[in-house]
Amino acid sequence: MRTSTWYSGFAKSAAHFCGRPRTFSLAVAVIAIWLITGPIFSFSDTWQLVINTGTTIITFLMVFLIQNTQNRDTEAIQIKLDELIRATNGAHNALLDLEELEEDALEAFRKKYQVLAASARKNLDRGDKDTDTPEP
């Protein structure tokens, strides 16, 4: 079931490549060469413009690359969490796909779980167990 668009494949490859220590070393080398060439070009406006333009373009493109990678990773994690909730006996299936709810619905769930957590802490302080589900 692996389907991949050209962008998705490119983004995966580019993110993998850009995350390597060699790529970081290459970027440092480019900056070092640029610094070394400063006196040769009399630290001119053009000399400065080269590095400014290059880093701006790379940064602009990397934002989209990083966002694509982050979106893909987040979606995969959410699906895995949904599967764990679905497969766990006693888990609340209403929590599946929780990230799609509006802010007020999320806040209601959060408050409910804060109350449960406070109750569990009180039980722990009394020496009771902190396992199982609170529902009968």
Explain this structure.
The protein is mainly α and 136 residues long. The protein has two domains: 6-96; 101-136. The protein has helices spanning 6-18, 21-37, 45-87, 103-125. The radius of gyration is 25 Å and the shape is elongated. The mean pLDDT is 89.
In short:
It contains four helices and no strands. The protein has 136 residues and is an all-alpha fold. Helix 1 (6-18) packs across helix 3.
Overall 3D form:
elongated
The residue fraction in helices comes out at over 70%
Number of domains: 2
Described by strand count, sense and barrel closure, the largest sheet is: none
Quote the beta fraction. under 5%
The structural class is mainly alpha
Distance between the termini: 40 Å
**Averaging pLDDT over every residue, what do you get?**
89
By DSSP (H or I, 4+ residues per run), the number of helices equals 4
- The arrangement of helices and strands along the chain is HHHH
Low-confidence stretches: none
Counted beta strands: 0
From the alpha carbons, calculate the radius of gyration and give it in angstroms. 25 Å
